[in-house]
Amino acid sequence: MVRHALGQALTVENYRVFHARNHQEALNEFQRQPADQPIDIVLLDLNPPNENAWQTVERLNSLQPNLPVIAMTARVEEHDFTSSAHFVDALMEKPLDLPLLMDTLNHLTSQAPILRRHHKTNSDSLIH
Fold this sequence. Notes:
The chain has 128 residues and is mainly alpha-helical. Helices cover 41% and strands 10% of the residues. The chain has a single domain (2-125), classed as 3-Layer(aba) Sandwich (Rossmann fold). The chain is built from five helices and three strands. Helix 2 (23-32) runs parallel beside helix 3. The longest helix is centred in the last third of the chain and has 13 residues, at 98-110. Mean pLDDT is 79; it is low at 121-125.
C-alpha cells in the first residue's frame, strides 16, 4: 500500500515508476529495461523480510555503476553502513518525508555521474 502511494506521488512528479515486491523482482525489472530507456534511479527498502538489500544494491551497481540509489529504512541503527555506504547516494529514514525525498530525487537525477561517484564516497552526507 505504501509502495503504491509512493509510486503515485512519483508519477504525479513525472517519474516513470516500476514496482517490485522484493529484490529479485527489482533485479528482474532492471534487467528487462531496454538499453535506450535505462532506469534513472532506484528507491530500495533495506528491511524486507528474508532478503539482503546490500547484495541487491551491489548487484545493481555492477549492472549500472553510476545508477543513483536511495535506500530507505525504519531502523537506521540496525545497519552497518561502513562497508556498503559507497553503493548508495542517500539514506532516508521512514516514515519518509515526501518533500525531502522529492528534493533528493531531483538532485540526484540532475547530477552528472562523476559528481554522484564522489558523493558515494562521502558517507558524512548519506543520512537524510
